[in-house]
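Hello Y.,

Per our agreement to keep a running log of every chain we model this quarter, I'm adding this entry. I've kept the format consistent with earlier entries: sequence first, then predicted structure.
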Amino acid sequence: QVQLGESGGGMVQAGGSLRLSCAASAASGTIFGINAMGWYRQAPGKQRELVAMLITGGRTNYRDSVKGRFTISRDNAKNTVYLQMNSLKPEDTAVYYCNLATFGSTYWGQGTQVTVSS
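Predicted structure for the entry above:
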């Protein structure tokens, strides 16, 4: 079983920055077959949406509204994925969820709140 531990959320003014981290761990100590790690978000009353995904091998996928402002990266040795968020806007306010996909399963973190005030 894989567990995802998120950190880095908080409250910031528009134009500010935050960095989210998500560390993946398994009781066995090894996570096999990681296909992708990334971030989704869900604002009140809205569906969960993809923010950024980093696919094993290096390909990235960003939603259009965060391109040029957010950067996803990964430390393979630590099984940790990061989301650097710059130039934050009020519309970025949401609960951000870490996601890890293997070839057989998908795992979610508990979520971390990001609030951007105008």
